[in-house]
Amino acid sequence: MADITPISPISSDIITKKTDTLPKIEGEGFADQLKSALGEVNDMQIGKENAMADLATGQVKDLHQAALAIDKAELSMKLMLEVRGKALSAYQEISKTQM
After folding, report:
1. Which pTM value belongs to this model?
2. Which of 5, 31, 52, 64 is the most buried (most CB within 10 A)?
């Protein structure tokens, strides 16, 4: 039979390694991306309100563009509500797990 070499023990250097030597990830965090997405939804809702006001007062120049702005705002709101629901559901699942 072939000789089997034993597994060497873990050195204490690996266990006590500092995390500041690890590469840092650059870019936006989740909270920043969420704020940005909510800002975009808010901007679309403001555009929707302006388009509806223009329709009501007869000041609309392009009916097609106004209808598109309204539909985009409604779809973005529905998407945001779905994402919020999924995030709340995930949070509730995580909070149920025992540590």
Report:
1. 0.62
2. 52
